[in-house]
């Protein structure tokens, strides 16, 4: 689970350049319990232990309750987590790369499972909308609070 499933019915990759340091973005990104305070797309988030490989967190969106396990952590550079929710297996990769303009954040996610196979276009649109919202919220929070 350390890579996107390229054969998945739904795969989305998005980028944002954020006028903030990798340290600032990492702090926001790995403080799972605080996600609902700045990301309206997440209604609840609880990390079970520190943000380290093998630990899990439970989080809710308006349409899904998800339990994710952290598969990879490279501080200030990359995280990978994944889990199963309502028949959807997701793998989510985040990367952070410092640039002259701030930090380039890449968010990649793949979804597999029967619900995705039954409606790949609808599921792809939902995932894309969710990821755009998450990146927009991260950018807004980092630049407004720390920029």
UniProtKB/TrEMBL annotation:
Gene3D superfamilies: 3.30.530.20. Pfam families: Polyketide_cyc2. InterPro entries: Polyketide_cyclase/dehydratase, START-like_dom_sf. It comes from the Bacteria. This is Shy6-polyketide cyclase. It comes from Wenjunlia tyrosinilytica.
């Amino acid at each position: 689970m350390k890579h996107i499933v390229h054969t998945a019915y739904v795969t989305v990759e998005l980028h944002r350049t954020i006028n903030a340091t990798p340290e600032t973005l990492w702090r926001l990104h790995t403080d799972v319990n605080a996600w609902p305070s700045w990301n309206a797309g997440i209604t609840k988030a609880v990390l079970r232990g520190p943000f380290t490989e093998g630990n899990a967190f439970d989080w809710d969106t308006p349409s899904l309750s998800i339990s994710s396990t952290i598969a990879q952590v490279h501080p200030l550079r990359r995280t990978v987590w994944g889990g199963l929710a309502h028949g959807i297996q997701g793998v989510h990769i985040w990367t952070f790369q410092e640039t002259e303009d701030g930090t380039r954040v890449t968010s990649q996610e793949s979804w597999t499972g029967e619900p995705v196979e039954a409606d790949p276009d609808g599921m792809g649109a939902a995932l894309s909308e969710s990821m755009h919202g998450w990146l927009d919220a991260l950018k807004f929070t980092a630049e407004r609070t720390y920029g």
